[in-house]
Amino acid sequence: MLFGDEHVRRYVETDGAEGHDWQGTTVLILTTTGRKSGAQRNNPLIYQPYGDVLLLVASNGGSATPPAWYLNLTANPEVQVQVKGDRFTARARTANADEKPDMWRTMVATWPAYDDYQRKTDREIPVVVLERV
Question: pLDDT (tens digit, 9 = 90+) per residue, 21-35?
Fold first, then answer.
């Protein structure tokens, strides 16, 4: 099973032929700029299309703290995205209270564990919206 840096490497090398379809769902590569280091950080993340945007969930497995990639994109919302062989710049934002419920249902339909992760933490887990620039 692909995971972490190996997942990113194989995904990028094969334009997603290896790594896009993963454990019954779909994965993209999100590249953020480190808020402290300024370094580029690549993360394989579950995503779903939602109209003209893509959705991610900043669950960190239900941890009390958000994932580093989420903190990075809140500091610098311009990100790079790779979906299979399609590479593009996007602007990331957190879903607002009105739009989040339907977006959350969309993400839970593809990865039911998100509901479990939310039950594990007092932190409200954000849904991230990626809008192609």
Answer: 999 999 999 999 999
Query: What is the full DSSP assignment across the chain?
Result: ---HHHHHHHHHHTTTTTTSEETTEEEEEEEEE-TTT--EEEEEEE-EEETTEEEEE--GGG-SS--HHHHHHHH--EEEEEETTEEEEEEEEEPPTTTHHHHHHHHHHH-THHHHHHHH-SSPPPEEEEEE-
Query: What is the greatest pairwise CA distance in the chain?
Result: 39
pLDDT digits (tens, 9 = 90+) for 90-111: 999 999 999 999 999 999 999 9
133, 89 contact by CB (below 8 A) = yes
CA 14 to chain centre: 20
Which two three-digit tokens encode residue 118?
């939310």
